[in-house]
Amino acid sequence: MNARNSRFSSAARVVLLGIAALTGPSLSYAACTRDDAFNRMMALSQFGMKLQAALPDPLKDPRGYEANYRRVGSFNERLGAVGQPLADAKYDEACTAYDALAKDYNVDLAAQGVRSLAVVEAEGRHPPKTGCDLAESARRSMWLTESFQTHAQAANGSRDGWQTFGKEMEPVGLLMQQDPNRACALIDTIAAKYGFRRTGS
């Protein structure tokens, strides 16, 4: 797995950790609510994916890559670290950390265009009879990444192959929270290109 695809998988895990946090305690008496913390997390996750997508190719522009990689890595580490307070329902602590991260990286949270926790949870209680919700798009994303990894290992896949796959997957992360149906459609298109087929599909 090359560096770019590894970074994509890391971003996807942040999203999945946020989804897992939805199953935690639903009541909070903190100044920062569960909704507040989750919405911040998803907005910052979107921004982090954009930072990763903007990284230059490490072989074509090694100096540019090195100049930006540490900043992106630091952002993802800080974002991932707040996943535990969020899962533990320490919403004040989570919001404080998310706000500090947003300030340090000049992130306009509202401009990230993510859907609110209320919308996501309503969708979870009443999953669409057709199409995808956030959880389904996340499952398909991880399935596709794992399928490509197995395929690449069996075929001794090249760095260029991983890089191509990573570039194809970059828009998926941005779409998963904003428009799960479009994310799933893109996942299915990429899967078809490589001849991957999900069980039961």
Would you write up a description of this structure?
The chain has 201 residues and is mostly helical. 71% of the residues lie in helices and 0% in strands. The protein contains nine helices and no strands. Helix 1 (3-21) runs antiparallel to helix 2 (34-53) and helix 2 packs antiparallel against helix 3 (62-81). The two termini are 27 Å apart.
Keywords:
0% strand, 201 residues
- The secondary-structure element order is HHHHHHHHH
Main sheet, how many strands, which sense, barrel?
none
Q: How large is the count of helical segments?
A: 9
The level of helicity is: over 70%
Average pLDDT value? 82
What is the topological layout?
Layout: H1 3-21, H2 34-53, H3 62-81, H4 83-87, H5 91-104, H6 117-125, H7 134-154, H8 159-178, H9 180-194
Helix pairs in contact: 1-2, 1-7, 1-8, 2-3, 2-5, 2-8, 7-8, 7-9, 8-9
Write a compact overview of the structure shown.
This protein is an all-alpha fold and 201 residues long. It is built from nine helices and no strands.
